[in-house]
Amino acid sequence: MNRRGTLAGLASLSAAPLLRAAEPGHMDIAGNRLTWNGAPLRLAGIAMGDPVYIRAGRSIYDYAVVARDWAANCVRISVHPGHWRLDPGLMMQLLHTDIVAARVQGLFVIVDWHAIGFPGLYQPQPPPEWGLPADAYLSTVEEAIAFWRGMARLHGDDPAILFELWNEPVGDARHWRSDGAHWPLFRAAWQEITAEIRDLADTILLAAGGRWAHDLTGPAAEPLPDPRTAYAWHAYPNEDRDRPDRWFSSLGTLPQTHPIVVTEWGFCPDCASDLRGGLDDFAIPFTRDVLDALGLGFTAWCYSAGASPALLAPDGTPSAYGRFLRDYLRADW
Q: All domains of the chain, ordered by start, with CATH?
């Protein structure tokens, strides 16, 4: 199917009302879309950050706010590998508290293992001024397996919770082309993690490609064999900015065959170059031509006044970006 045919085929999905997970149900994959109790499901919501760092000091009432005031039907909750490694029991307890708070509001939940890079290849450290442990983003495949086995035991029986296996796999920080580089290595690791989860749960999984989760050309050419795996994608203003086929060259043909959830996207008029963008040069064309035209699910980064791009202003009210997102979520889908 060509892109025009794909857009036509997804028109009904992008216009469908948002489903919620307030009642018992079952999530499945049917072709290139998620379903809930057999009806097309489009996840539309907010990345909340992690319970230890970004959400430090925040109330669990945030989940009621994003469900009722922002009209989201989904949240993404992150776990930094370094925090989990320091105290797995405490991390799982804090994560459980946030998951329960979200589920009480009828929200679908994406749990994200917030690893960046890949063992033996790119292994980044956060800037010291951020206050994160130096190993916050670093993970081995074995550590990811241990985390996901624990998650599967605790939450694998809730079909409204999805597992995002690895936040942003990166093989080479200098490689800014979407060409499937390192996908065979990532694919093998995701299969290993998936096999361990499948011993315990049939949870819907989200798998990322390379280039900070922006390159899905590898999965398009050689998707994972697990039939209950969809794909995560990240998109920020500087990625593919000067390409005439912006965004679509990195998505490849995957939107035609598999569900995709954009688990991170956002913009900031005053941020550094990778996040710098506004309504006309990013937000409006991205939501119109990608999210809506392809019917993609999404969680916008990030429900915070400090983590950029920030949905909240320093006083806790929505930022300009936050107001755009809130209006978008409140629209008559």
A: 3-330 (3.20.20.80)
